[in-house]
Amino acid sequence: MSKTTQSKSNLQPLTSAVFTTIPVELPQVNQTAIPIWIRLPKVGKSCPYTGLSRSTLNNLVLGSNPPVKSVSMRKQYAVRGTRLIHLGSLLAHIESMVEAPSAAEATDVIWNT
User: Fold this and answer.
1) Cα–Cα dist 68/108, whole Å
2) In terms of Cα–Cα distance, which of 47, 48, 39, 33 is closest to 70?
3) What is the pLDDT of residues 17-51, one digit of tens each?
4) Cross-strand pairs, 73
5) CA–CA distance from 35 to each of 30, 31, 84, 105, 113 (Å)?
């Protein structure tokens, strides 16, 4: 037998992976992350985070002293732009609208007869 024939006969199929370095694991991605800024929803749609309509969001972000922070992203001298709403500010405003029930209201029971 020649040397090359002998070396070919000793070849075994590779049954397991051979690593030269430690395998790298991908970092976990947080699927529940919420954005910092959101766009106004399209006409006829509601906000996916709050359920508020486009017109209600516009009323909250426009005016002389709006309760919700927003910014208009547009180029200089452009007529149109993209309005971005600060989601944290919007959620904080909604939370401020919730009133805790008083002690008297919590103990009162209203019966419909």
Assistant:
1) 35
2) 39
3) 666 667 677 677 666 788 999 999 999 999 999 99
4) 82
5) 12, 11, 11, 37, 47
As given in the structure block, the two tokens for residue 35 are 């954005």
Structure tokens at 16: 């397991």
Q: Which residues pair with 46 in a beta bridge?
A: 53
For the whole model, what pTM was predicted?
0.60
- Burial group, residue 60, by CB count within 10 angstroms (0-12, 13-18, 19+): buried
Helices marked H in the chain — which ranges? 3-9, 54-61, 87-97, 103-107
What is the Cα Rg of the chain in Å? 31
